[in-house]
Amino acid sequence: MEEIAVVPRHIAFVMDGNGRWARQRGLPRSAGHKAGLEHIQDVLEICHNLGVQVVSGYAWSTENWSRPQAEVRYIMRALEKHLPRFAKELHKRGVRFVHSGQSDNLTPKALRQLADAVELTRDNGPSVFNLAFNYGGRAELMHVIRSLLAEGLQPDAISEAAINDRLWTAGLPDVDLMVRTGGDQRLSNFLLWQSAYACVYIASAYWPAIDRDDIETGIEYYNRIMVQA
Q: 10-135+175-227 is classed in which CATH architecture?
């Protein structure tokens, strides 16, 4: 990456292609999910070394519950099993963990692990990892609307700031660069409000295979499209 490049403050990843990565290698989809989960730490280290402050990862959407039950159970068990160790590693590196998403359908153990990870790393920063798990952009906006109605805010009091304060990502900056792995050109209902002015870069590599070159290429694309425009 060129030295003059402006590094995005917030990169959001649509972590797509785990299943296809596994199928390419004659492995079950669960092997792809395992590789994808393990690869998050690698990508975080790359991004933070490049100077990216906030990294968001789209791990599980509100629509994914319709997938085969065996896959759903695997993902839930993986979250319960690996999140504590993952959170401890983030804490050791001074990274703050944030969870964006609904609590519906999550097991009590998964909810406890997510809450523990948030609490453990609460005072860390400025580096942040935002895990979008059981997340959907439309569901998030519905959550905001319900919150505003429940609080009885008058129409004149509803501003962009009021909405930002009630998002699951409250306190995080807007997305500068959205990277979708796996080649598909879709937003998939991810951080719709937060990405209103984001640059979108499509990487052909599947999530478990994305590397520093892919991320640097995305940042260079961001510079050409957003910074030098």
A: 3-Layer(aba) Sandwich (3.40)
